[in-house]
Design goal:
single chain; about 200 residues; alpha+beta; two-stranded antiparallel ribbon
Length: about 200
């Protein structure tokens, strides 16, 4: 999940949960006989949620139904957008490989990810590597995260990764291009004592 989408998802879930918890807890407490809170919209335990006057208050106003329909439409569109964003696959399940005979083949995305991660981890100065495939089946993209040892030169590591592992993967899958995003960070280590 993209970082912004993940943040929006967490905030919306948190707000919805908080509102439901406060309102539901208040309804339960008042229903069990506790005194109604000061902000509660009803008087007591036997009060109805919406009285006849509240339900029919704006029914004859010309603006009421268009506003209700517009708000509900916006809520439905936002809920559908949120649902599709949450259910959308984050990783590429397979990559289409052009075999040259017109039939083609499919390569499992996790297999390609693990091979790329193993090759990246084997590079000099790389402590740990994580690879993720995104994009479409016929146009995959890679996201590589490297944890570099303190002695590693980032430019040399990037050049070696690009020239060897990523180029080999692109050629093996017979892709015209395989855009890649590489993020590097250094591994934390203890300070060495110099005498």
């Amino acid at each position: 999940m993209k970082p912004v989408l993940g943040t929006v998802n967490r905030v919306l879930l948190g707000l919805a949960g908080l509102v439901l918890l406060v309102v539901g807890g208040s309804v339960l407490a008042v229903g069990l006989g506790a005194p109604a809170p000061s902000w509660w919209i009803h008087d007591g335990r036997h009060d109805v949620l919406l009285s006849d006057a509240e339900r029919t208050r704006w029914r004859d106003s010309g603006w009421w139904w268009p506003v209700v329909l517009a708000v509900l439409t916006v809520l439905v569109v936002l809920a559908l957008w949120w649902l599709t964003a949450v259910l959308r696959r984050r990783r590429l399940a397979e990559v289409l490989v052009d075999t040259g005979d017109g039939a083609g083949a499919s390569l499992r995305g996790r297999a390609l990810q693990s091979v790329l991660a193993a090759q990246a981890s084997a590079l000099d100065g790389v402590a740990k590597a994580h690879v993720r495939l995104t994009g479409r089946r016929d146009a995959p993209r890679t996201r590589v995260q490297l944890a570099l040892d303190p002695h590693a030169d980032p430019s040399t590591t990037l050049h070696t990764l690009t020239a060897q592992a990523l180029a080999r993967a692109k050629d093996s899958a017979r892709l015209d291009a395989m855009p890649s995003e590489v993020r590097m960070r250094s591994v934390k280590h203890r300070a060495e004592r110099v005498s």
